[in-house]
Amino acid sequence: MQLYISPTSPYARKAWMVVLEKGLQDEVEIIPVNPWGSPPELTSKNPLSQVPVLVTEPDQAIYDSRVICAYLDSVRDEPQLIPRTAMERISVLRMEALADGMSDVAVGVFLARKDNGDNPDTPAIERQLGKIKAALKVMESEVPNFEGKFDLGTIAYSASLSYLDLRYGELQWRQQVPILAAWFETIAQRPAMSTTAPPA
Ligand SMILES: N[C@@H](CCC(=O)N[C@@H](CS)C(=O)NCC(=O)O)C(=O)O
């Protein structure tokens, strides 16, 4: 299999972390591309020109990151990153939705600020930034439930928080949510986190 990624994409990082946590690294080749340049090798597989894309067979490409993670979790049983029982499964998928939603906002604001040049943030951008703060608070309130758990929900939280470190240093998110920050420090020690870190 081949996983097309961009080193800065939080969605691609989530999928790559799942590859590593599932022990599939020898079966998945990681291929970096620049999705913003709409390279034919990517658009031929995903008309949206977005990463990640997982190619499972010569003519079989899977996207987006949620579908890829669900597929990878089904390739082998252990470790189970998406629980099989209904309510636990929904809880993990809801965490993934919150993390991806925070990434959607963060990536969107990063692009909007580029368009906005040196002008102050517009009210629309400020509203979006408020969503990041609200999402962080919800994530923090859930830390007591994690109890050493490492599943697709916590992988998704890790990937999205790492994107804040990459693009939003000025937000100083750790100061707003110290319990979440302390949890994240323990997660940051995992090899899947260091292997997928974007180049400095
Ligand atoms: N919902 C998608 C979002 C993927 C996404 O937005 N990827 C960005 C990189 S962070 C991308 O490839 N953007 C290029 C573009 O939209 O042209 C997923 O979860 O995979």
Protein model, in words:
With 200 residues, this protein is α+β, with helices and mostly antiparallel strands. The protein folds into 2 domains: 2-75, Glutaredoxin; 86-190, Glutathione S-transferase Yfyf (Class Pi), Chain A, domain 2 (Up-down Bundle). Helices cover 58% and strands 8% of the residues. It has helices at 10-21, 40-43, 65-75, 86-116, 123-146, 152-167, 173-176, 178-187, 191-195, and strands at residues 2-5, 29-32, 53-57, 60-62. It has a 4-stranded mixed sheet with strand order 2-1-3-4. Helix 4 (86-116) runs antiparallel to helix 5 and helix 5 (123-146) packs across helix 8 (178-187). It starts with a strand and ends in a 5-residue tail after the last helix. It binds glutathione.
What is the topology?
Layout: E1 2-5, H1 10-21, E2 29-32, H2 40-43, E3 53-57, E4 60-62, H3 65-75, H4 86-116, H5 123-146, H6 152-167, H7 173-176, H8 178-187, H9 191-195
Parallel strand pairs: 1-2
Antiparallel strand pairs: 1-3, 3-4
Helix pairs in contact: 1-3, 1-6, 4-5, 4-6, 5-8
Bound molecules: glutathione (GSH).
